[in-house]
Amino acid sequence: MSQPIITDYRKHYRNDAEFIQSPENLSLVRFASERRRFQVSVRQIEFTSETRVIDIGCGSGWLASECAKAGGCVTATDIALTGVSIAQRRFPEDVCYSVADLYDMPMLSASFDVAILSEVLEHVERLDDALQEVKRLLVPGGHLIITVPFRETIVQHLCIHCNHPTPSNAHLHSFDTEGLTALLQKHGLGVEKMCFLNNKLLELLRFPRITRRWPYWAWRTCDRLLNYLVGRPAFVLVVVKKPSA
After folding, report:
1. pTM for this structure?
2. What is the dihedral angle through the alpha carbons of 232, 59, 208, 177, rounded to the nearest 10 degrees?
3. Residues 3-60: pLDDT tens digits?
4. How many other CB atoms are found less than 10 A from the CB of residue 152?
5. Rounded CA gap, 200 and 38, in Å?
6. Cross-strand pairs, 238
7. Contact 243, 192 (CB under 8 A)
8. Contact in structure between 44 and 145 (CB atoms under 8 Å)
9. How far apart are CA 36 and CA 223, in angstroms?
10. What is the pLDDT of residues 120-136, one digit of tens each?
11. Which residue, among 44, 61, 40, has the nearest Cα to 199 in the 3D structure?
């Protein structure tokens, strides 16, 4: 008899939080790939000492730490106490950590200039509720930075942690540019920028590892060129703006 499919993914994420890998434990290729993706995200933000940033679904805490190093006043949240505690131990400097559910955040409205959803939306069951809550947190004219896998093929497998049929990587949604744009516009979030990241062909050729010491501009030029010529980007990044009024 087959196991029932998971219906409460928030519980699933809480159970899996302790299995989030520290950056230093990643393979060299994956470490270099994630580092580059985070660099692109951070470069979308015009930091000042007063820029208030919230990284929602912070995972390991790595991206939040990079935002803090760039000069922002950073809050990092995730749904599981275990995961947040581990992230705080990994990156304790200059980041305020909080356990919070994306559907019901404990922060006041208009508390942040920038919100980041880095590989989060593909996990979220109620996309409309999630985006409305993030929009509430932003000041008028504030920005939301989103990265999601691009045109991902989602397959079910038996989760090694909970032994239930689960979408691979617990991804519930697959996004293309048209669908993502329509979803954001539905919530009054205007797309200011969209770009592709981490070409899959280059990833297979271990390009992130080979180029890990290259300057950012050199890596980014190659990645952009391959995404333009052959397609197959792994991720899409979108910068959207909350209306000023």
Report:
1. 0.89
2. 20
3. 445 556 666 666 666 667 777 878 888 899 999 999 999 999 999 888 999 999 998 9
4. 18
5. 17
6. 146, 194
7. no
8. yes
9. 10
10. 999 888 999 999 999 99
11. 40
